[in-house]
Amino acid sequence: MKHLLAIQSHVVHGYVGNKAATFPLQCLGWEVDALNTVHFSNNTGYGTVKGTKASAQEILDVYEGLKLAGLSYEFLLTGYVPGEEGVEAVGKVGEDLKTNNPSLIWLLDPVLGDAGRMYVSEKTIPVYQDILKSGKVTLVTPNQFEAELLTGIKITDRETLKQALTAFHTTYKTPYVAISSLSFSDNDNILYSAGSTLDKDGSTSTYIYEFNKINSYFTGTGDIFAALLSDRFYTYHTLKPVPDPLSVAVGEVLGVVQQILKITDESARKSGIKRGEIGNAESMKQCELRIIECKDIFGDATVPYKAQTI
Amino acid sequence: MKHLLAIQSHVVHGYVGNKAATFPLQCLGWEVDALNTVHFSNNTGYGTVKGTKASAQEILDVYEGLKLAGLSYEFLLTGYVPGEEGVEAVGKVGEDLKTNNPSLIWLLDPVLGDAGRMYVSEKTIPVYQDILKSGKVTLVTPNQFEAELLTGIKITDRETLKQALTAFHTTYKTPYVAISSLSFSDNDNILYSAGSTLDKDGSTSTYIYEFNKINSYFTGTGDIFAALLSDRFYTYHTLKPVPDPLSVAVGEVLGVVQQILKITDESARKSGIKRGEIGNAESMKQCELRIIECKDIFGDATVPYKAQTI
């Protein structure tokens, strides 16, 4: 069995954080240990939400329990943590796991915000930067806005994209970087994904993928991207190694994520919703990712997107 | 889609409570909203455990969040809740859901203890009795010890079994009762399951199933039984109605649970563990139910156990 520890949010209803990651990874044969950083009724886009946040000490305590039980992991997936002390705690967990098992793969999804708006305190930015500087993170998956916040480089075209991706390799020594979706002002109907690998000789391979935008708002897209990428990256990095595991993995994951979004969008439209709108609970409910309906496609590799080197 | 709210424990590692219930129900096509009553590193059988318990107020708050988001359910599954105030809170949630939707099916698994030992305070017994007396519970799934605690009838043979099961109909007006496993002193190698239905004319149909004991200790058996029974009972009660949905459902669920236990036991033995032993973390880890490996058998109906009327 493949053992993965996932540290991110739990929502009772809907699909973000661990709720988005767990079922697909289980379907792909992973034993998923889900350490929840919040316990919320639903994602915050509904306009109303109730629940509790785990303190940094609670996160560390539960991790201590896992150590006492003698558990070990091949993969660590970390995502949304509310507040800088919690992020520090998750950093300690990652550092400890990696120290005890240098072959552990750590995918860090630095959840800070999206589309120019921060979800969390600005104080978390330097904490994520310190974690990245530790050199323990294998693969980082910021979105466009988060990549800008962490590198200080505004991404407006392929050139600045390349600079930002490369900064993760040079400033933070993170060998693999992936961005699930980004846009330039060139075309409103086109989105891009991007990846970058620090090669063994110190050079970098940077690539971009292009796809059509679906005109709606979905939550959890970054979370399902990171979850599926955990599986595919592990496959092509460790189980069936290929020269650049990230570029193959991102191409396949994009194919699956685009199918999930298409199924979700069609299903939402059938229920009478034109598009998801933040703060409108009914539209958010209808735009929840159709994770359950998609159970047979998580492993699909039939429509991989092709990487273009930049 | 079928919408189920599950209120029980969460463990980061392993399969009890919601961690045992969620994946199988999702595989069977349910949208599972998982409201967690505890957030523990692992089940308590390991000898060490770390984590937090949700207060009664936290349970009610999260439920309030679900109401604000306008969510509704066809099925409510409630299991382990630590402490009588939490049980009272879950009772309020069930009563509110049932009042708003009289066709809601509520499966209540009254988790009190097992094999003569209580897990929770004795003060929870009258709270469960009050919930049952409300008449809102559709199906109750105590184990042998819990059925004895709730009815005051010691179950030693078929006659006392029948008395205890019938007491749930007469004292509490609960129409359906099921016990996943029980034993008499007649034969150490044989276990039984039992069910009872309060018929429309006020009479009761009580039945027993016999199967061979696997000589090991597994946690989460009652939880996977209750989860699969939620699916099967809903199928035969609501989707494809049959005259006594419970007896068909229990027969099928037993067939699946026995397969899961067999696969788990064989896998544990291959890892060098002779049997699960409470307090021995290594043996408990190896005896965790093989939920992920069993993903294709949850819906199996090929080896149903046959009910014998008693």
UniProtKB/TrEMBL annotation, chains A, B:
Keywords: ATP-binding, Kinase, Nucleotide-binding, Transferase. Belongs to the pyridoxine kinase family. The lineage of its organism: Eukaryota, Fungi, Dikarya, Ascomycota, Saccharomycotina. GO terms for molecular function: ATP binding; pyridoxal kinase activity. Residues 80-230 form the Pyridoxamine kinase/Phosphomethylpyrimidine kinase domain. This is pyridoxal kinase. It is an enzyme of class 2 (transferase). It comes from Yarrowia lipolytica (strain CLIB 122 / E 150) (Yeast). One of its GO terms (cellular component) is cytosol.
